[in-house]
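Re: that backbone. C-alpha cells:
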C-alpha cells in the first residue's frame, strides 16, 4: 500500500495495523542483517499494540497524533521494503552492502524516534502498560546507534578478499581462490546445495540488471565478479564432491588426480604472475594482442572493446567516462612492447584472445624467473617513456616551425599520443606543446583547428595540464572555436574541453564569467548534434553549480530550450536536460521562469512513469521544488493531472531511496494543499 498523504483516521489505523502485522509475521529471517531485522520487528510489534489500542478507543485524535501516525506509516513501509529486499534479494549482495543496509535500518530507527517526538501520549486514551512501552521504545530509538554485526562485517571482508583474488586471476586460472573459504561463507548465508547456488546466481543477475546504467560500472562489475565466483565455486565444490564419491576406496587414483590438479595449478599460477598487468586488457584480463586507445585515453584489446561498444555502451569501461567518439586508435607503442614480450616468452603472436592464457599456461616451462621479468618490465617502461618524450619534443618542434601540412600532421599525432595515458599527457605538456596548440586554435585550416582543440581536450584530462591550459589563456580561443569552429567535431570538442577544465572548482567561476562561454554552450545545445548537445549540457551542468553562473544560463535563454529538449526524442539528452533544470531551481529567477511553463508538469508526470531511474529522481526533485514555497499554482496543476497521484504513489513504493523520500514529501505537500483548499471553501 503506497503512502498517499494524510489518510482518514480509521483508514490510517487500519493501514498501520495491516503493515505492522505483515512485518511482524515474517516467518523466515534473512541470513544477513539478522540483528537489525529482529530488533526492528520487535519495535514494530510494540507499535502494533499501540495502533490496536488506539483503534479500540474509537476517539478523535489530536492533529499531532495524526501527523505522527502518518510518519510512522511511511517509516514502516520502508522498513518492509528493506527487510523484504534482504529476504528476497541476493544474500551475497546484501553481505557486500552490509554497511549501507545497516545505515538504512539506522536512519529508519531515527525517523521512528522523530515521529514519536510529536506523539502526545498524555492525550491518548491508552493503558499505562502501552504508554510505558511506547515511552521506552521512544527513548531507545533516540539513543539508538548504528548496528553493524561484526560477524557479517568479517564475512564481508573475507568475501571481498576472495573477489579480489578471483578478479586478479583469468577465468582459466581461478583454481587459486580458496574455495573452501568460499564454501564456508556461502554455507553461512544459506547456500548449501546446487539449487541454492542457482537461485543465488539468478538473484545476482537480476540485481545486475537493476544496477545497469544507474549503479555505475564498478557496481555492475562487482556483481558480475560475484556471479563468476559463485558459478565457479558451484562447479568446483559439487564436482569435487562427486569425484570424492567416485574415488572412495581408490586412494591411489584420488592421490594421482589431486597431484595432477596441484601441478596444473602451480604451473598456471607461475605463468599468470609473469604476465605484466599493463599487458592485460581491463575487460577480458587476457593479453592485449591488438591494443587500441579509446577517447578516454584508456587502452583495451580491440576485440573486447569493440564488443563493448557494439553492445550499446558509450562509456569507458575502466573510468566510466563518456566516450566523446567511438574511434579505436592503435596503440603502436604498447603493441610493440607486447610483441617483444611474447617473442621473449615464446607466446604465439597470432591467436584468438579467448585462448591466450591457455597458451600462457602451456608455455610456463619456458618462463624467466620473477626478478628477471621485473627488471625487463622496468627497462621496457623506461624505454617507452623515453620514446614518448623524444616523439613529443620532435612534434612540438614541428608545431613551432613547420609548414601548414607539417603542423596539421604534428597536431594530429599529438592528439593521438595524448590519448595513451597520464604519463604521455604529462610528457607532452612538459615538452611545451600547450602554448603552440592554443595558438593553433585560431588557424584557418579546419583540420589543424580540429586536431589542436581535440589534443587540448585529451591533455586536459591530466589535472596539472588544466592549470597550464588556463595559464596559456586558452579560454578565449576555445570559446571562438565553440562559437565558430570550422568543423562540427571542433565545436563539440571545444564544449567538452570547457567541461573538462571546469572540473576544477576555481575555474568554474572564471570560465563562467567569460562573457561568451555560457551563451556559446546554450547555442550548441540548441543547434548541435546529439553529441554536441550532450557535451554542452554536461558543461552547463558543471558550471551551474555556482549561482552566479545560473543567472548567466538563465539570461542565455536556456529554460525554454531545455523544456523543448524534454519533448525531443531525437536529441537524446532527457536526463541531462532534467539535471540542468533541477540545478536552475536553485536561483530565484530560474525557479520563477520554470514555474511559468504550462507544458512542463505533464512532461514531468510522464517521466515519473517512463523515465530512467536518474530521470525519475530529477523529475520528482523538479516537481517538489516547483510546488514548495509559493508553488500553489503548480501544485494545483499537478493535482488536476489524472496521472500525477498514481505516478507519485508508484514512485513512493518502488522508486530509489531518494525518489521515494521526495515522492512522500510531495504527496504530503499536495495533501496539505487539498486540506487548505477544503478549509477555505468551508
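Recovered sequence:
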Amino acid at each position: 500500500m503506497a503512502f498517499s498523504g494524510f489518510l482518514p483516521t480509521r483508514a490510517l489505523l487500519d493501514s498501520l495495523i495491516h503493515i505492522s502485522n505483515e512485518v511482524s509475521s515474517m516467518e523466515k529471517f534473512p541470513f544477513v542483517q539478522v540483528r537489525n531485522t529482529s530488533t526492528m520487528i520487535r519495535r514494530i510489534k510494540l507499535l502494533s499494540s499501540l495502533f490496536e489500542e488506539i483503534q479500540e478507543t474509537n476517539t478523535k485524535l489530536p492533529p499531532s497524533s495524526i501527523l505522527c501516525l502518518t510518519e510512522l506509516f511511511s517509516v514502516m513501509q520502508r522498513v518492509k521494503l528493506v527487510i523484504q529486499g534482504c529476504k528476497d534479494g541476493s544474500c551475497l549482495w546484501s553481505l557486500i552492502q552490509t554497511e549501507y543496509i545497516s545505515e538504512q535500518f539506522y536512519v529508519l530507527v531515527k525517523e521512528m524516534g522523530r515521529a514519536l517526538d510529536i506523539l502526545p501520549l498524555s492525550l491518548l486514551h491508552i493503558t499505562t502498560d502501552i504508554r510505558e512501552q511506547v515511552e521506552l521504545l521512544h527513548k531507545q530509538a533516540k539513543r539508538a546507534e548504528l548496528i553493524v554485526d561484526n560477524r557479517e562485517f568479517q564475512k564481508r571482508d573475507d568475501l571481498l578478499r576472495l573477489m579480489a583474488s578471483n578478479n586478479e586471476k583469468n577465468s582459466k586460472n581461478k583454481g587459486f581462490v580458496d574455495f573452501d573459504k568460499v564454501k564456508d561463507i556461502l554455507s553461512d548465508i544459506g547456500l548449501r546445495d546446487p539449487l541454492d547456488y542457482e537461485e543465488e546466481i539468478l538473484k545476482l543477475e537480476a540485481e545486475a540488471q537493476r544496477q545497469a546504467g544507474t549503479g555505475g560500472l564498478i557496481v555492475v562489475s562487482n556483481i558480475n565478479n560475484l556471479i563468476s565466483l559463485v558459478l565457479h565455486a558451484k562447479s568446483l565444490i559439487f564436482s569435487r564432491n562427486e569425484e570424492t564419491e567416485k574415488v572412495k576406496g581408490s586412494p591411489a587414483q584420488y592421490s594421482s588426480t589431486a597431484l595432477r590438479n596441484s601441478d596444473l595449478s602451480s604451473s598456471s599460477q607461475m605463468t599468470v604472475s609473469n604476465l605484466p598487468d599493463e599487458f592485460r586488457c581491463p575487460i577480458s584480463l587476457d593479453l592485449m594482442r591488438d591494443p587500441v586507445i579509446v577517447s578516454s585515453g584508456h587502452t583495451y584489446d580491440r576485440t573486447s572493446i569493440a564488443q563493448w561498444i557494439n553492445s550499446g555502451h558509450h562509456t569507458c569501461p575502466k573510468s566510466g567516462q563518456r566516450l566523446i567518439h567511438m574511434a579505436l586508435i592503435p596503440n603502436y607503442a604498447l603493441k610493440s612492447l607486447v610483441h617483444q614480450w611474447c617473442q621473449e616468452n615464446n607466446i604465439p603472436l597470432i591467436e584468438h584472445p579467448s585462448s591466450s592464457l591457455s597458451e600462457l599456461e602451456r608455455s610456463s616451462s619456458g618462463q624467466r624467473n620473477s626478478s628477471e621479468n621485473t627488471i625487463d618490465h622496468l627497462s621496457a617502461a623506461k624505454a617507452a617513456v623515453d620514446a614518448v618524450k623524444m616523439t613529443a619534443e620532435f612534434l612540438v618542434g614541428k608545431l613551432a616551425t613547420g609548414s601548414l601540412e607539417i603542423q596539421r600532421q604534428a597536431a594530429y599525432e599529438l592528439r593521438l599520443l595524448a590519448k595513451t595515458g597520464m604519463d604521455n599527457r604529462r610528457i607532452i605538456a612538459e615538452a611545451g606543446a600547450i602554448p603552440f596548440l592554443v595558438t593553433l586554435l585560431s588557424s584557418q585550416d579546419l583540420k589543424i583547428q580540429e586536431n589542436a582543440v581535440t589534443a587540448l581536450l585529451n591533455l586536459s584530462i591530466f589535472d596539472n595540464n588544466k592549470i597550464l591550459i588556463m595559464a596559456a589563456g586558452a579560454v578565449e580561443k576555445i570559446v571562438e572555436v565553440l562559437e565558430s569552429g570550422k568543423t562540427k567535431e571542433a565545436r563539440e570538442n571545444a564544449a567538452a574541453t570547457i567541461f573538462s577544465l571546469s572540473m576544477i572548482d576555481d575555474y568554474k567561476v572564471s570560465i563562467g564569467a567569460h562573457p561568451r562561454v555560457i551563451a556559446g554552450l546554450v547555442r550548441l545545445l540548441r543547434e548541435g548534434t546529439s553529441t554536441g548537445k550532450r557535451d554542452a549540457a554536461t558543461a552547463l551542468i558543471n558550471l551551474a553549480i555556482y549561482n552566479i553562473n545560473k543567472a548567466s544560463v538563465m539570461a542565455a535563454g536556456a529554460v525554454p530550450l531545455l523544456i523543448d529538449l524534454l519533448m525531443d526524442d531525437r536529441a537524446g539528452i532527457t536526463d541531462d536536460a532534467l539535471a540542468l533544470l533541477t540545478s536552475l531551481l536553485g536561483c530565484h529567477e530560474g525557479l520563477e521562469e520554470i514555474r511559468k511553463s504550462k507544458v512542463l508538469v505533464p512532461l514531468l508526470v510522464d517521466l515519473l512513469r517512463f523515465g530512467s531511474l536518474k530521470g525519475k529522481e530529477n523529475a520528482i526533485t523538479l516537481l517538489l521544488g516547483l510546488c514548495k514555497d509559493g508553488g500553489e499554482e503548480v501544485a494545483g496543476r499537478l493535482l488536476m493531472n489524472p496521472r500525477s497521484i498514481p505516478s507519485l504513489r508508484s514512485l513512493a513504493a518502488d522508486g530509489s531511496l531518494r525518489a521515494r523520500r521526495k515522492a512522500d514529501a510531495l504527496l504530503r505537500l499536495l495533501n496539505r494543499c487539498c486540506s487548505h483548499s477544503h478549509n477555505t471553501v468551508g
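Residues 209 and 220 are 8 Å apart (CA to CA). The two ends are 30 Å apart (CA to CA).
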